Input
Amino acid sequence: MSIHEVCQPAVLLIESLARSLAAATLRKHIGKQTWVLHSACSGLGCPEIAGEAIQAAVKSLPGFHDVNIVPGMKIDKNGAARATLMANFPDCCVFGELEDWLDGHARSFAKMRLKTRNHCFQHGVECPLPGQDTSDASDASGASGVTFVVMIAGPPCNPWSKRGARSGNEHTDAFAHVIWAKIVVQGPYDIVIFENVEDPELINNLHKHFSEHFDIHVSVASAVKFGYPVARKRLYALMLRKGKCSWKSAFSLQLVLDMMQRTRRMNLEQLWFLRGDGLATYADWDPDLSGLENLTPGQRRYAEGYQQFHHGRRVWALSQNPETQPRFETEGCLMTLLTNTVPFSVVKQRALAPVEALVAHGIPAIPEVTPAGMRTWTLLGSQGDLRKMAGMSMHVPSIAAVMLAAMTFIEKTQ
Output
């Protein structure tokens, strides 16, 4: 895989899946459906990027019908992420905190009430949530085949992350999961895809809140398996509204995702792809500066510590103390990007620029890596905002794989 392929994951995933399944099976299903795609807590819109990658892929492959993905509402509490979503989807409603939808003070799932309207940052007025009595199919004008209303979300992971507090349901951020679950259950969604860290308590929560209304298929996907030198192992739950759609395959979701694995992986150092003026253009860095001189005093101190205690490692995380909490590459794979992670390449002698971190997640952040048929994502915010968004974003190839599995094996039952 080259850096020019890193942002066209759907082509690679479809080709891998076609090697395991009859190509006719894929052509039969993918493209004969419309997805009205809503998202929450997805950062700068990785599910939408995955959808655009799938649309571009099927247009480039023979025998496929065009996929129709209609953008819906977005919910995100991060200001830079909201601004980016608003810039890329000027016609869509963009809301803020999940907690803003709570009507009253009841905190239990059964007694909780939601507002019907809330402040929309895009339109500057109060706009409604999609409701059970709202026909989203009307948004898919001119669509052929079957229409699915879809929600993809990755609510806060801090309560369960190994790098977080690990206080689970007792953490204040855990309440956002309950509100999101209420929004989903009361909404019009046929298909729901949940992304988060792998944790048994999270799986229990999904069954507690959704099992009455949804069939739940749990899997684990890692960007590394799809050929990306980035550690981001995540839980993916595919939930299907009972009586409206179902999984029509003898294969499990996990097995289908495994079919898309790639044995070849791009070289880790390829992620440091900006050169010369590109550094100044896309990273606000002086291209003449490199090595330790381009780091802050604190980062230089940590770099010296890594050189002393972890000599021989190819990439250091300059946001982590090398003596007490060292983080570095493992088996040629970039460490999981957190919101403050600053990877420093010993070979390239500089830190990974924020835009490079976004591209490592499959995001077409600059024209040089944007595949044919896709648009370059408009990004708003400071360099710190971009680095934070890279750490909080889903990995595009992983979510694209789950979406492709759903498109291939989910059928409407009503």
